[in-house]
Structures
1.
Amino acid sequence: MSTLKLMSNGDLTIGGLGSALLSLDFSTFSYLQNTELEVSFFSKKSIPLISDIIMRLRIIDATTGDEVIRIQGIVDSNPDNLASIVAVADATEEFEQFELSFVVEDTADAILLSDAFNAANSLGRNKVSIPLDDEMVPPFDADELVKTLTKLVDPPSYLALPVADNLPLYVACLQAAEKFNIPLDVELDPTITAEQVAQLSESLDAQTHRVQLIWSPILCRPRDAVSLRGRKIPATYIGQYIGDKLLRNAQTNAEGYAPIQKAVAWKDYPFKKKALELRPDLDLGDEQTLEILAKAKVNVVRPIKFKQGVRFVLSDLLTQKQSENSALRLVPAAEIAMRTSNDCVAILKENMLRPTDDFLKDTSEAIEEYLDGAVTAGWLKPADDLGGKPYAFRLTPDKDKPFERVRLYMARRPEGATRTAIFDEDVLVK
């Protein structure tokens, strides 16, 4: 926490000894380092009262000058006055604490003496900048991260880990993904070798359809590069991947179903950074290297030749599911399975605490309507194991607690995605 003080002679300080006419105790939810507090006072009257003075605070990056936080309001400690700087600070939700106190009789005179005061009809350029103490970031707490995520009112639909170099963070994200039953997309270090990628995949040991590992051994020009021959940097992919996934999800049909059966991969979703090229030390045309990566179930961004030319694309869509023939090996099918499960749980929750007969009837109708919509959207396909139907479910009272508990059984066949093709050729010569 920092304390801004205004002395009787108009000096502004952070902390320090001595009594102050105005004192502002504040702390942000962010951990600030290498920042400054910029203070300004303004008045539209030539002889202002304290209620006529406006206070502006800016927290800025001392290195770049970028504005981090900016608030402005009347010098008033009453949060019920919506024009007061306290109310404005509370409204930003940037401050964990913001307490203002001052001596009503003498504070206005001290502000007039301050170098930060801008009189009426002035240019309004006077300000005082004071360095803020650096705040130490607390050590990572995996349990706290999981607790924070699970307490969210609106749970996330996806989790993404840009770099898998922190095992406790990875484990915490995996726990949250399993708790929410949502996909976790993890990008591996783009600078390591294919063998190291396979070893890292084995050490992460996800063994679940919720996790996808992505590796982008690609170089690109920095986004702010001005030279055509400057040094290239590793081109991480997960940011564009999540963006493309959200854009795909925005293309809903009339019933609100997104085309999640369509994988965000291959030529329809090319990598779009500047001057892309494969790392020169890698040969992804080598079958042995691709075999290593496929066994590790790592989806690689690499150049592929199409009719439109060479494009850098995500070239596979495997999850970390340990199976040879399960649909949950595929990213789109796994997402469909998770989405339908979560949506049906939400339907169950909507109808809770109703009479059992009403609950069974209305909930069964709602689930059937929802799954029919999923079939129309292309999420589910007919299955031989289900008698040629795309899904089957039953909602019945629980045998052990028939008065208060019901049991839902649901089976469905998600749409797949073709990742291999066998060409049986026969040329007839007569």
2.
Amino acid sequence: MPAGKTSPPAVGKVSPPPASAASTGSPAASAAGATASAGAGGEDDGCDHTMPISPDEIAVYRYTPEGGSLSLIVRYGNWGCGTPDSDGAPFETVGKETYLPMNQAAYVTVTNPVVASTENQRIGVQEFLDWLEAHPDSGLVFRYQLGADGAVDRLEQVFTP
């Protein structure tokens, strides 16, 4: 990574990753307690608002090379309920932003708006970091896998229209 390359600083404070999230890829324990809620007006909207936190999907906001290693700044979440007139369900984040270490040789695929395609296209990690720097706090949703070292070694954007 070139010297001096960092994402813009966060507006709020970012909490350090919990040991369990960094080692297992599981969301922070505080995020696991999502609560149920009814639809607008309190009536049952037919949607399950108690869905568990997605174990392999994150919303990516920024990155940092602090501490000599690359980390994504992410929030865990789950898929909410789409409305009949929407293109799909939204990814609803929960809990605080946290760090997720990333391998600098990770396999990364992206779609719109990073590349002009609705199909995943492979790009290099530095190209992805450059895009994050130019578009902080985008909250794009990615499916990820951790390597044996506990760092992200595969990051694939989930296309959301």
3.
Amino acid sequence: MKSIQTLFSSLEQWEQYQPNNMASSMNKIQHIQHIKKQIWHRLDINDYKQVILENNQ
């Protein structure tokens, strides 16, 4: 299992990637979505509850 830091690093790399064709573009989108899902599943909302509430005020 990858660490959160590794997942964010990978996400940044994929977001910077410039596809050359339609297939590469679709691959980029799929990788980004997959990494975001992995990050989302690894985060515990209770750990960030106070930060979220403070930012929404």
4.
Amino acid sequence: METGIFNITQWVYFTFNYPEPKKMFAEIFGSLSDHIYNKWLSYDCNFNRLFTELDRECQRKLARYVIENYHGVDGCKPSAK
């Protein structure tokens, strides 16, 4: 349960503090990056809206990226409780 709460918190902080989006999308989505970047722009840069519009595979890629690369919440390490 603690990991799930941590991951949700990590996601929320990420949506307010994301890195360079164009570069990040290229790293995550490869050949789809321009398409997904433009989709994100059309949603007023809203990551939650984008996430709901992605297919399951792209949702997993984005979520995995945030979990593995975003280090803004207490160093991004779940507590060992």
